[in-house]
Every structure is written in C-alpha cells, then in structure tokens.
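FORM 7B - TANDEM STRUCTURE REPORT

SECTION 1: FIRST PROTEIN
SEQUENCE AND TOKENS:
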Amino acid sequence: MPLPNDDRDGRRRCRDCGEWKPLDEFHVSSGRPSGRGSYCKPCFNKRSNASYERRGSTAGRTVRPREELPEGTRRCPDCRALKPLAEFPKSRSGRGGHGRYCKPCHNVRGRESRIRNHGSTREYHLRRRYGIGVADFARMLAEQGGVCAICGRAAPEHVDHDHVSGGVRGILCFNCNGGLGHFRDDVEHLAKAISYLRGTTPWVEISPGVYRSNSRTPAVRRSRII
C-alpha cells in the first residue's frame, strides 16, 4: 500500500501542508528516488527560516524574523523602504533576478566601494575605461601645456583614445573629442572637411599654416512663414 506522500502521476503530497502538488513544486533532493524532497517549496522555506532563527538564538545572535511581503516587492536592507522589484537593479545571482539593495542605495554603496578601493570615482573611471590614473592624466595634460591638444582651450577634461587599439592619444576638450568621434577618427573625412571649408569660405593666412576666416557674406534673412 503506497505511503501518503508517495508520487502519483507526477504529483506528491507535502508532509506539512498535506496538499498534492506537481513534483516541480518540490525542491530538488538527490536522496529521493524521484529526485524531489518531501516538502513543497513554501513549506520547505518556512522550515528553513525557522531552523535559521533557532540556530541564531542558540548562538546568541539577534535574528530578524522574515517579513511576508506582497508579491513583486522587496524591502531594501539599507533604506528599509518597500519597493517594487523594478526599483532594484538586475542581477543574475540575485534572488528573483534582482539585487538586494534598491537602485539609489546600490549606487551609494557602489560610490563608497570605488572611493574605498581606488581613492575616488574619477580614479576608478579612468582605470576601468582607459587604463590610466589621475596622476597619469595630470602628467599628460602638463606635457600638453595644460590645454587641449587640438584647439588649445584651457583645462580640457576628456581622454581621447584609439577605438581600435584602445591606446590613449591625448587630452581634449569636449568639442574636439566629440568632433573626432563624429568623424569616426577617419583622416580622409577630416581632410575633406578641411578642403570643404577652405573652398566655401574665404580664408586669410595670418601666419605660416594658420588661417583665419575673412567671410563678409551677409547672412540671409529668412522671412517668417505664418
């Protein structure tokens, strides 16, 4: 005669709640013939939490009782706010595919970790993306005279690197760095752009190799269309 919790047509009776459920609602257990445990997942989790609390009390630890939360929500351990799972960053290793801390608290912890391990978020960013540190940046900028390597604007803040090799080329201002990116670092495109400008705008050579626009073409006034 089969025992009360023996498998029947792919189902099993949980020893705690007594309900018949599909086998996939029982945790995997290599010690059972069917490969599934004797307790359904909710009952198993309750037993596990109770056991954890008992062990904590025996060891003298203060164990916070597990809170029953609405489905699709989580309480952040740092700010203690109850939020939807969408307010937590995605995490492959996290329970339910989401991290433990909400996004604001996750960001705060990330900044603290970067400062603790690297001294500053700037150092972390430069090391991670370009392989140089704040000291390397300052040295390169000093070698350029403290100005953008292209236009000469003071105090540039952007690292220019080769998108193929990844090597750092220099320190540029925002406009020059963006300009190279828009031209996709293509020398031929940049040369054509120079030829285009020289062919469409009157230029005056004010010193060898240095030109200044001398355009006196009046701007075309466009009538407002009503």
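SECTION 2: SECOND PROTEIN
SEQUENCE AND TOKENS:
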Amino acid sequence: MTEPEMWEAVQRSDASYDGLFFYAVKTTGIFCRPSCKSKPPKRENLCYFASGEEARAAGFRPCKRCRSDLLEYQPMREIAAEIKARLDKASSLDDVGLTPRRMTDVFKQEYGVTPKEYADSLRLRTAKEMLAGSPEKVIDVAYRAGFSSLAAFNRFFKQQTGQTPTAYRKEHQVL
C-alpha cells in the first residue's frame, strides 16, 4: 500500500483499512486506526506502521478515541458468534443478555440473516440430509429436524424447496 493511499484513508476515516495499517502523529505521540474520527492531522506530522506493536515500539501510545489498542476487541461479533453456536447446538437463547430485538440486530449485522432464518436453514439442511440418507418416516424426520408437527414441516419444506418431503426423498435418496 502506498503512502498516498494511506493518507486518503486517514482523511476519509475509512474503516475498511482498519487492521491493514496504523498511523501515528509525531506531534502528539499517539497512534490511531485509519477510521479514527479525530480531526485529521497535518500530513507532514504522520508516520505509518503495519501493526500497533510497531507503533508502540516506536514510542507512540494508543488513541483513547478509536482505541487502536483494541482492534480485535469486537464484543458484538463475540455475542453474534455465541448466538450462532447456540443455534448450531439447538440450545436456548434465553440467557444471552440481550432483548430479542437487539439479538436479532446484532446477529443480522454479523451474518446477514436473522437468528430465525439461520435456524430455519439448519432445520432444512438436517431434514434434507435425513430424507436423502435415511429410511426414517417423514414424520420422524420432521420431529428430529425440530418441527412441532408434520403439517408445519410439510408447509415449511415445500415453501423452501418447491417440493414435498416425499418428492424430495424420491429424487435425492442415496440408500
């Protein structure tokens, strides 16, 4: 990456460059992320580093505004990962510590889908695998995939795949 590119990123407070480099201001002794919202310094007062450790080794301290020392600290990402892990294990989401609305927002921001959409995709994948790879009755597949009734399973499966579970089994069974 060139110095002019880094300077442009600093001027724009461009978060897409975070982690790729850090800049330090010689007059203040502080190093920042490219996305720092502080007033842009004069270009002649800047120097660039590949990592926060390099900036510290050169005698600069982390910015208190952008918390350049906490680049990897992303609590919402950690919460979204916990929600995903619980959904993967079909565990309860009751004690995550967020309201259902906030939990949905955090999860969707990280993964692009709501927790319900993600859980539905897991249930659909499980159902497809069981229909194609086991001789179990469709009702047993429905319950093992997490559905409370055969009617709900049939409706969901047809809506998602365009065919009934029985038709899907006939087309994809590998026994």
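SECTION 3: OBSERVATIONS ON SECOND PROTEIN
The helical segments are 3-12, 52-57, 75-88, 100-111, 115-133, 138-144, 150-161, 165-172.
The chain has three domains: 3-70, 75-112, 123-172.

SECTION 4: SIGNATURE
Preparer initials: ____
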